[in-house]
C-alpha cells in the first residue's frame, strides 16, 4: 500500500513495518500490501518492500474465526516441517502471535514465483494441451509424494489423531454446519446418515493436506509443481481423503455442474477425473475401490465449508464482497445433491 491508497482490511502498515524491521532481514521499508484474491478462507496478502523483495502474509478472517481452521501457528509449523522434505512448499519466514501488530496472529512465508491456475482464462492464455497434461501428472505425483512422507520423521507426528479419519470428518463438518446453516437442506442430512453408516476401512495413515486442488498449487513454467500452499486443513489420516477432495474440485467436460465456477480442468489436455484416480492408484499402490465414498464425503464436506464461508461473507468477515458470494447457496445445494447421487450410485 502506498501513500494515499486506502488501508486494506486486516492490515496495519505501521505495525507490520515495525515487526518486519525486527524479524525479517534484509528489508527496505516502507512495505506495500496487496490482497491476493481467489481464496475463501484465510486472508492472504502479497508484501513488497521498497527494494522489490516479496513475501506472502497469511492471517485469519476479520471475525467469525474457527480456531481449528484458522490457526496460524499450526499452518506455519506445517510448512516449516515440510521444508526440504521433497514436497515443495514456500520457505517459512516468521510467525507472529501478537494480535496488536495487525489485529490477529499471522505468519510470513517466501514468495514463490510462478503461475497459479485459478481460472480458465489464465489456463487458456498460458498453457497448451501438452502442458496441461504435464500439470495434471505433476499434481498427482506431488500428492503421492506427500502421502509417502513419514509424519514422525518430518516432525508432524503429533499433528492430529491418526485413526477414524472419515468419522472425524463427518463429526467436524456436521458440527460446523449446525452452527452456520440458515435453512433446511435435506440432502445434506441424508448424505451424513448414509456415509456415517458405511465408512470403509481406513487406507493407511499419512499427512493429509485437506484442500488439495489445482489453485492451491504454484507451478513452474514447465508445468511442474513448485509449491503447495494453503495448509490450514492439514491433518493426519486417510490419504484417499485428499484424492476425494481433488476429484470433487476437478471439472470434467460433461459434468452437470462445477464445484468451482471458474474451474479450468474441463479444458482439453487435462486428465479426466477417472484418469487422475487411476494415476494415483498406479503411482501410490493404494486400493481405490472405495473411491466413490471419498468423493461423496468430499462433496458433502465442501457443502459444509461453503456454508461457513457464506456465513462469514454475510457478517463482513472478509472485509468486502466476493463475486461468488450470492451464488453460494445454490452451489451448496448442488454439492449436497451431488453427494447424495454418489451415495446412491455406490449403493450406500
Strand content: 5-15%
Record the strand order, biggest sheet.
1-2-3-5-4
Q: Evaluate the radius of gyration.
A: 20 Å
Q: Which spans of ≥5 residues are poorly predicted at pLDDT below 50?
A: none
The tally of strands reads 9
For the record, give the distance between the C-alpha atoms at the N and C termini, rounded to a whole number: 53 Å
Could you state the order of secondary-structure elements as H and E? Answer: HEEEHEEHHHHEEEEHHHH
Count of discrete alpha- or pi-helical segments spanning 4 or more residues: 10
What is the overall pLDDT average? Answer: 92
Main sheet summary: 5 strands, antiparallel
What does this protein look like?
This protein is an alpha+beta fold and 348 residues long. Helix content is 41%, strand content 11%. The strands form three sheets. It has a five-stranded antiparallel sheet with strand order 1-2-3-5-4, covered by helices on one side. The protein starts with 12 loop residues before the first helix and ends with a helix. The relative contact order is 0.14. It has ten helices and nine strands. The mean pLDDT is 92. Helix 6 (186-196) runs parallel beside helix 10. A hairpin with a 5-residue loop joins strand 7 (217-219) and strand 8 (225-228).
Structure summarized in a few sentences:
Helix content is 41%, strand content 11%. The protein contains ten helices and nine strands.
Secondary structure topology:
Elements: H1 13-23, E1 32-35, E2 43-48, E3 54-59, H2 72-82, E4 92-96, E5 106-110, H3 120-126, H4 129-148, H5 165-180, H6 186-196, E6 206-208, E7 217-219, E8 225-228, E9 235-237, H7 240-249, H8 273-284, H9 291-315, H10 328-345
Antiparallel strand pairs: 1-2, 2-3, 3-5, 4-5, 6-9, 7-8
Helix pairs in contact: 4-8, 5-9, 6-9, 6-10, 7-9, 9-10
Amino acid at each position: 500500500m502506498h501513500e494515499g491508497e486506502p488501508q486494506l482490511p486486516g492490515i496495519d502498515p505501521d505495525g507490520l513495518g515495525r515487526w518486519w524491521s525486527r524479524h525479517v532481514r534484509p528489508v527496505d521499508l516502507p512495505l506495500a500490501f496487496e490482497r491476493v484474491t481467489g481464496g475463501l478462507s484465510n486472508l492472504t496478502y502479497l508484501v513488497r518492500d521498497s527494494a522489490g523483495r516479496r513475501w506472502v502474509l497469511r492471517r485469519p478472517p476479520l471475525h467469525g474465526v474457527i480456531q481449528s481452521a484458522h490457526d496460524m501457528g499450526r499452518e506455519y509449523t506445517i510448512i516449516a516441517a515440510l521444508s526440504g522434505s521433497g514436497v515443495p512448499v514456500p520457505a517459512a519466514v516468521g510467525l507472529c502471535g501478537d494480535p496488536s501488530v495487525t489485529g490477529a496472529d499471522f505468519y510470513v512465508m517466501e514468495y514463490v514465483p510462478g503461475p497459479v491456475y485459478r481460472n480458465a482464462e489464465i489456463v487458456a492464455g498460458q498453457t497448451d494441451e501438452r502442458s496441461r497434461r504435464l500439470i495434471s501428472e505433476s499434481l498427482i505425483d506431488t500428492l503421492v509424494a506427500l502421502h509417502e512422507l513419514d509424519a514422525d520423521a518430518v516432525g508432524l507426528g503429533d499433528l492430529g489423531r491418526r485413526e477414524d479419519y472419515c468419522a472425524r470428518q463427518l463429526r467436524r463438518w456436521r458440527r460446523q454446519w449446525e452452527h452456520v446453516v440458515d435453512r433446511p437442506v435435506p440432502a445434506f442430512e441424508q448424505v451424513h446418515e448414509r456415509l456415517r453408516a458405511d465408512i470403509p476401512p481406513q487406507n493407511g495413515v499419512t499427512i493429509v493436506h485437506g484442500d488439495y486442488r489445482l489453485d492451491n498449487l504454484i507451478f513452474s513454467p514447465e508445468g511442474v509443481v513448485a509449491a503447495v500452499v494453503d495448509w490450514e486443513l492439514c491433518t493426519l489420516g486417510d490419504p484417499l481423503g485428499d484424492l476425494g477432495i481433488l476429484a470433487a474440485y476437478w471439472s470434467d467436460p460433461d459434468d452437470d455442474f462445477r464445484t468451482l465456477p471458474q474451474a479450468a480442468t474441463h479444458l482439453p489436455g487435462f486428465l479426466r477425473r477417472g484418469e487422475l484416480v487411476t494415476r494415483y492408484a498406479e503411482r501410490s499402490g493404494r486400493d481405490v475401490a472405495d473411491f466413490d465414498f471419498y468423493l461423496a464425503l468430499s462433496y458433502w464436506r465442501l457443502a459444509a465449508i461453503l456454508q461457513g464461508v457464506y456465513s462469514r461473507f454475510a457478517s463482513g468477515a472478509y472485509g468486502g464482497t466476493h463475486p461468488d458470494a450470492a451464488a453460494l447457496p445454490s452451489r451448496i445445494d448442488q454439492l449436497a445433491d451431488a453427494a447424495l447421487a454418489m451415495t446412491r450410485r455406490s449403493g450406500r
